[in-house]
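Treating backbone geometry as a discrete language has practical consequences that deserve illustration. Part of our work consisted of pairing the sequence of a single chain with a tokenised description of its backbone. We regard such an encoding as a compact summary of how the chain folds. The amino acid sequence and the backbone structure tokens for this protein are reproduced below.
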Amino acid sequence: MSRATREAYRDTLLPLLARHPELICLDSDTGLFSADHAAAAGEQYVNLGIAEHNLMGMAAGLAACGRIPFVNTMAAFAASRALEAIKIDIAYNRLPVRIMATHGGLAAGHLGPTHQALEDLAVLRVLPGMTVVVPADAAATEAFVEQSLDVPGPLYVRLGRKPTPPLPEAPPPVIGTAQTLRRGGDVVLAACGPYPVLACLAAADALAGHGIEATVLNVHTLRPFDTETLVAAARPAPLVVTVEEHWRSGGLGGAVAEVLAEHAPTRVLRLGMPDRFVDTVGNQEHLVTHYDLTAERVVRTVRTALDSAALSGTTL
């Protein structure tokens, strides 16, 4: 059943608050916690209003005093408005603040470029010691919230807004370890986030009909990056294609290209948002289709690359 990752986070956190008095939830008036949710959390829930920079500073102070803050904000504001406080107050001091960033990628498409987060993965993953995670469904979100209690230092989790379909049955995801959802030796499809991962799974099914077997990796953790799994999948394959709901610069595609350039040089094609601000209004599903972050595009990309190599008699 489809379920929103942000709601899965909230519903997992509430019972954790009851069991762990050191946890505290700081909100920026996101509307994720209703009056009933706030009442259930009691003094472990504080709504600071729309003041993201102050939110991060307060979280850092509480973390320095032994608390583990879960901070609710929107991804666009975490990656820009509050970035200085995240960098200096939280990351510099290696504090265990959990930044739970909703409306990631195009999830706030209806609100325009000011609220879309297409740079957050690039920005956050370069901060020393910052763990960066992108759950692909509600079940993964639940697992990551539970696991976050044991993650040292700061953590950034990119969440969505509306319900998204669950992934097919797979072993529970673990922070820091990429999930291999399908195996094949002809191409590697690496993705993060609900729509890109689902697109890659659908593309792998379609490619199999053309005699092309794909490995599909759900690279939910961009930092620390699972180099071992990626390199093992990429070495026998002539092509790696990355798919993400993010600008092509600096996100998953950038991370994959960096790793393979050092450990297993392979052709990498990066599919993501074009290098411009979104100029189309619509919900997330409309924009994902409009900008062609789809299974059909993945199939076209793979077949064109492999066919071109075959015609020229070269290796990719």
In short: Residues 81 and 237 are 41 Å apart (CA to CA).
